[in-house]
Known about the structure:
It is a single chain. This protein has 232 residues and is of the alpha+beta class. 28% of the residues lie in helices and 24% in strands. The protein has seven helices and eleven strands. The longest helix has 12 residues, at 120-131. The radius of gyration is 17 Å and the shape is globular.
Amino acid sequence: MQSKPRGPFLLDDTVEFPPVHLADEHGLLAVGGDLSVERLLAAYRRGIFPWPWYEHMPMFWWSPDPRFVLEPDELKVPRSLRSVLRREVFEIRCDTAFAEVLEGCSSAPRPGQDGTWISAEIFDGYLALHEAGYAHSIEAWLDGELAGGFYGVAIGDLFCGESMFARVSDASKAAFVTFVQKSGFRLIDCQLETDHLRRFGAHEIPRKEYMARLEECLQAPDRVGCWRDVEM
């Protein structure tokens, strides 16, 4: 029996993706396409996310196996961070400085990386997704200044975290933990493994299980709109 071709596949102008089980051994599924709101939403609803490999190259689309996720009821909070949260060192806000959070994430130094993966195309694409009510920033403020935070995409009962940064120690951690504890999402998609998120209880699950969980999460209505008035 002839085996099915594996990715990466070249995308065309239609907002369609191959089935995720056809991704290559690294999780790379497709190359090309734009970052329109329609294409981004189609990707996340199919368990796919964009992540450029090199600047000035076509966009790469991924669906890794296994997938790195956090179950909110399995969240682990270090004792030192519990003290920070208890003392309310930071004011946690949503969607009051989305572009500034994107900028902070793009300029944050990354171990082992010479630059940022948040290209101008990524920046503009997620800003448009934010304006459409699907991408959100969770921010930690200190004395009226943005101290850190993260951004991601909300679809149904799933929140897909994209990137975080901190200008003040524990700022992004405080924003992340507060969000996980209070937002009520069923599952947090962390996409790829990091030691940082593993310490909070994130773990790997097979892609097949992730896709089943995604389908469950998509049964819930999307939380579309600005979260500026959501209390954290």
